[in-house]
Amino acid sequence: MTVTIFHNPNCGTSRNVLQMIRDAGQDPQVIEYLKTGWTAEGLKALLAEAGLTPREAMRTKGEAAGALIGELGLLEAGVSDDAILAAMVAHPILVERPFVRTPKGTVLARPKETVLDVL
């Protein structure tokens, strides 16, 4: 089974999910999205697979993400999904993590146990 984790090694939840995947006997493809970045098409497809809107997948916690969201006004009423998606592509820190993709589906593994649904 091919397992891909969109991972931030600085995130405890992401590290825990990666370990859960390995403990399940899988050797996942690890994509450190803060280094590789996102394309609008790729991120939009990932969100669609997970059944999430850009707003639902936007990271709102953490100092860096919180400051950017405020600066960009992304929590204001009327901000479109396209505007949020564009901000996520420009600032990958705004994407909540970790996302895990397997042949069984794609999930935003929060809480971390959600990953078990697709392993």
How would you portray this structure in words?
By secondary structure, this protein is of the alpha+beta class. Helix content is 39%, strand content 13%. The chain contains five helices and four strands, in the order βαβααααββ. Strands 2-1-3-4 form a four-stranded mixed sheet. Strand 1, helix 1 and strand 2 form a beta-alpha-beta unit. The chain is globular and about 45 Å long. The model has no long low-confidence stretch (mean pLDDT 96).
What's the layout of helices and strands?
Layout: E1 4-7, H1 12-23, E2 29-32, H2 33-36, H3 40-50, H4 63-72, H5 81-90, E3 99-102, E4 105-108
Parallel strand pairs: 1-2
Antiparallel strand pairs: 1-3, 3-4
Sum this structure up briefly:
The protein is of the alpha+beta class and 119 residues long.
Descriptive terms for the model:
119 residues; alpha+beta; four-stranded mixed β-sheet; 4 strands; 13% strand
Q: Ends: how far apart? A: 9 Å
**Which residues form runs of ≥5 with pLDDT under 50?**
none
Could you state the order of secondary-structure elements as H and E? EHEHHHHEE
Q: What does the overall shape look like?
A: globular
Q: Give the oligomeric state.
A: single chain
Average pLDDT score: 96
Largest sheet: 4 strands, mixed
How are strands sequenced across the largest beta sheet? Answer: 2-1-3-4
Radius of gyration: 14 Å
Query: Percent of residues in beta strands?
Result: 5-15%
Care to count the β-strands? 4
Q: Structural class of the secondary structure composition? A: alpha+beta
